[in-house]
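Exercise 7. Given the encoded structure of a 333-residue chain, write a plausible sequence.
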């Protein structure tokens, strides 16, 4: 697990300054931050885009559109772009920049290049972060006090992350560009449809309300055995109706109970793809409970852990089947 010191540092600033950021772009509800770039508790995500394969060239030295860059780094793989809104202009950009720099260094990332202000380019780094529209920033303010940039390689050398720091609409913002390095799989236009995931040889054991409730009381979380999905999809299989009815009955009998619905995947495939699939599957469960059982949406929240929390090995079919699951976590105020 990556340390989240930066999150606590920035969160304390939000509390101290009573920050309520104004943004023209709405914060995306239930958006999940990049697992290697923590998001402060009171911050938000205003952009989240994913492409399964891209070729991305990152600046690895100072420069701008006119002069170019002496050094660049080009990588290929699954590509995710995000924008964080992290505070108003009372939040010091240099403190924000140094906080994330410390986060990366203390967690074993290789700092390929970093800089702030004139280290990057003229105009306090504005020419650097705006050299390509929408890449390192989105319409940054020309009146900002400074701009900053960090380019890192993950400890396992499988992910490249560029974090740029800028201001827009009286708010401090970050643009996260991350590439999970992988070779491009060939596209077979005549490939047969993929075979569906094999269902367990024995149908999953249906749980009753008492069993779900006892798990929540004892551990704060419980796996719902019989929630199943279409292969490579967030569509819930009809056989899951009984298990979801049991979850609904639990919540109908406990008006004080609020649940975090967490989707989990196996370890096969791209990390970012599995993370997105786990969130989508959790959201499908929430939608089912709200629309079919009239559970208040305010009592449910969807989240996804992707492949990050397996309960057994992903080296066998049986292990992968167990790791593909939905958990309920009690939210205690």
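Solution.
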């Amino acid at each position: 697990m990556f340390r989240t010191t930066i999150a606590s540092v920035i969160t304390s600033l939000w509390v101290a300054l009573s920050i309520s950021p104004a943004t023209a772009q709405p914060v995306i509800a239930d958006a999940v931050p990049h697992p290697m770039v923590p998001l402060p508790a009171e911050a938000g995500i205003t952009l989240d885009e994913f492409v399964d394969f891209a070729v991305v060239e990152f600046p690895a030295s100072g420069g701008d559109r006119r002069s170019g860059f002496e050094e660049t780094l080009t990588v290929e793989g699954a590509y995710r772009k995000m924008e964080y809104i992290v505070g108003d202009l009372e939040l010091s950009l240099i403190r924000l920049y140094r906080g994330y720099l410390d986060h990366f260094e203390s967690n074993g990332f290789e700092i390929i290049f970093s800089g702030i202000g004139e280290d990057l380019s003229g105009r306090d780094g504005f020419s650097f972060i705006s050299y390509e529209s929408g890449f390192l920033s989105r319409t940054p303010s020309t009146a900002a006090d400074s701009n900053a940039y960090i380019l890192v390689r993950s400890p396992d050398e499988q992910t490249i992350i560029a974090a740029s720091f800028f201001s827009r609409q009286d708010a401090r913002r970050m643009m996260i560009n991350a590439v999970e390095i992988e070779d491009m799989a060939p596209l077979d236009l005549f490939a047969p449809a993929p075979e569906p995931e094999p269902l367990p040889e024995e149908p999953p054991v249906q749980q009753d309300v008492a069993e779900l409730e006892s798990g929540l009381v004892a551990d704060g979380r419980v796996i719902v055995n019989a929630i199943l999905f279409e292969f490579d999809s967030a569509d819930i299989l009809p056989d899951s109706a009984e298990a979801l009815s049991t979850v609904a009955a639990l919540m109908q009998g406990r008006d004080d109970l609020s649940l975090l619905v967490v989707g989990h995947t196996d370890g096969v495939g791209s990390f970012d793809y599995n993370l997105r699939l786990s969130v989508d599957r959790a959201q499908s469960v929430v939608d089912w409970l709200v629309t079919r059982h009239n559970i208040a949406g305010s009592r449910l929240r969807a989240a996804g852990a992707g492949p990050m929390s397996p309960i057994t090995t992903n080296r066998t079919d049986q292990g992968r089947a167990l790791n593909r699951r939905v958990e309920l976590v009690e939210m205690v105020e």
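Remark. The chain has two domains: 5-181, 209-330. Students should compare their own answers with the one above.
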